[in-house]
Amino acid sequence: MLHLIPFTKNHYQTLINWIIDEEILLKFAGIGFQYPLTQEQLDQYIAKYPDRKLYLALDDQENPVGYGEIIPQEENSARLGHLIIGKSQNRGLGLGQKLIQALNNESKSHLQIKNMDLFVLDGNTPAINCYLKSGFNFIPNNFSISYKDKTYQILKMTIVL
User: Fold this and answer.
1) How far is CA 29 from CA 1, 142, 160, in A?
2) Which of 23, 39, 56, 126 is most buried (CB neighbours < 10 A)?
């Protein structure tokens, strides 16, 4: 089982170590950060978005395995953002679903969130499959981003908690 703790400056290097290339950064954060991820970028991000709830997910042995954010929206809704299972050897083991479940439970119990959304890069099949298994469904509200002369479709998914 995973449990969440607030993400602090003490955890920056863990997250930075997980972002090993530009592709992972793009899947993790879209165009919100520049590669390589730095402590300064994280400081600026946290200062710019103080209402966002940032969490580190720990396994039963208290090892960091994932990261995710709850981004408050309007009318008892929120969005999950910047989801990652850190080390590649931990991916594909169901930890993503456990991370989402922990974030959704946190949202319901402490923030009274009733609807949760998320955005995902089209073609990020492992993430999409994880979100579908977690109960999210696609909704029509897609857009695109451009990065290094390439356009990426962003898909929106939602779930009622």
Assistant:
1) 25, 16, 24
2) 56
